[in-house]
Here is the input.
Amino acid sequence: MAYKLPWMKFNPADWSQDTAPLSLSGRGAWITIICAMWRAEERGKLSMPIIGFCRLLGASEVETLSVIDELVKMGISDTVTEANKNITLICRRMIREYKHHKNNALRQERYRVTHQSNAVITGEKSEVRSQKIELREEKSKRTTTKQFSKPSPLEVSEYAKSIGFNLDGQKFCDYYETNGWKVGRNSMKSWQAAVRTWKNRDIEQGKFVSLRNPAPSAPLKKSFNDIRLEIITKLEESSLAGGDSISRCLSACNDLYRDVPKRNGARVVDEAYEIFKHRNKKTI
Here is the structure.
């Protein structure tokens, strides 16, 4: 006997398309017949004498035979007239879906026997759907969140150094130890991400100095005496060239060292030139 399922599939689009050729009385008779087929001993087949169909449809024998003839001619149903004059109407789609459902139930039974399950086999549940739900539940149970592990100050410093960030690991650990290793109101999930956040914050505030590309150190400020010695050296080199090279050198030095503060009222270029003349005892 077929499983006594409380409902059957009904596709409005298919119904409208399949029964379009039928008359109004034919459509009404067919929906009544397929409901009876659903409850039949062999699902999808309804076999009874013509008088039974008359009572089922609430119509006369002539009207009932006319409806059955219309269903057969339009290809909606198959019919078989048996030797005892019983008429059997067959819904091909219902039989096909019933076989598919029954095969699923048998596969589920074999699966449970193979895996030594004590579950009760029922025909009311879609086997394919239930198996998919079970697989999703098993996957969700196997999925575990990685536990957060507090780093040591050395680990923090080493990681910061690997991304070119100069960070005191002890300062980092002390900060988060005081608030229970929370980021805002949430528990910390990745301390490496927190280190990168500190680095980005320093970059935005202009405090970041990369360990990979350190900022060039500022040039040492030259003293008055260093600049004077530098000018004397340039004058001596120019004197070797002869001609008016010394005059051109003095003019260039005046422009280059114009902003050097005076010492005792004397300009650095003038002092350098006096020393140069004293050493070489020559004038321009």
